[in-house]
Amino acid sequence: MQVIYSDTHRKHHPSIQIFGGGEKVPSFESPERLDSIITALTQTNWAELRSPEEFELEHILAVHAPDYVNYLQNAFNAWKTYKENLGETSQNSFVMSDTFPPRRSNRRPTSIVAQAGYYSFDLCCPIGVDTYEIAVTSANCALTGAKLLQTGEKSAFALCRPPGHHAGRDFAGGYCYLNNVAIAAKYLSAQGKVAILDIDYHAGNGTQDIFYSSSDVLTISIHADPAFDYPYFVGYADETGEDSGQGYHHNFSLPLGTGDETYFKILEKALELIKNFMPEYLLVSFGADTFQSDPLGSFAITTEGLQAIGVQIASLNLPTLIVMEGGYNIESLGLNTCAMLSAFARRA
Questions:
Q1: Which regions of 56-191 does DSSP assign to beta strands (E)?
Q2: How many angstroms separate the CA atoms of 183 and 171, rounded?
């Protein structure tokens, strides 16, 4: 099974993140996450690692707003200049705002400090000197996987970091800057219908934002009830698309503590929707944070459960690209990722 991976992700390593109440903790989204996965993959007899190809920026701009991409590309230098003009020698080497616009505001600010809040909905997406490069490389991992499907591969795994499914058309959030799975889906949609199944613990609010008015891409997200967990404001059952996309988005929100049996029943409903849509390609936003001891999740899915989830999805027998999203129990992350992928590896 082809695994698309770039070691350059290590250059993006924010030291802290800020939780509610102002608590500073080491960032859960760290390079060690992918170390765990790579170690486990190299112990299998089916994973074949390869580097991503480079793609034109037009594939990213087909999904993300040009002004937002321009912000990501230039934010760090603008921030550095701003600090220098103030005569400050801040120890913080990342762009991070402390000001966010109210819901009624649509004015695009010109100050880099304000832009950092305007283009993000939380404090989990600081921008360092290499962040834009790494985000583009992560998107290229997903695009390379999509291209492999076009050339006849039955399955591929894009080992992306940073993850992507919380990034919307013009905003970052939840460790996500560019929406890798959405960029790959848009690329493939030129050849036919595409379905995205998001099985990360958290709702794929960014993917929902991007395709909410589209009938070319069916989007389905199975996640924790947003009334009680991140991202809180998006992911409810009554959000079903709008305009030509009406009926082409589905949210399945599950209670905290959900285990294997309950999850399997909901997954069956999601797979039935995919079958009825009859896509040419399936993309899976995979987050191992549904695992029972993940520090950022409250489900009770076992390693055996993750393997069974992979078996159920693989049974659709569609050309499938799995795109890495969350998963923060580093000790178990590699094992759990391989468990989920194993059915696709056997098929490949």
A1: 155-158
A2: 15
Question: Is the Cβ–Cβ distance between 223 and 251 less than 8 Å?
Answer: yes
DSSP line for 173-202: BTTBSS-HHHHHHHHHTTTS-EEEEE-SSS
Residues with active-site annotation: 166
pTM score: 0.96
Of residues 121, 117, 97, the one with CA closest to residue 233: 121
CA distances in angstroms from 105 to 101, 118, 171, 188, 345, listed in the order given: 6, 10, 15, 35, 48
Q: For 282-339, what is each residue's pLDDT tens digit? A: 999 999 999 999 999 999 999 999 999 999 999 999 999 999 999 999 999 999 999 9
DSSP one-letter code for 11: G
Q: Residue count of the chain, please give it.
A: 348
CA pair distance 274, 262, nearest whole angstrom: 19
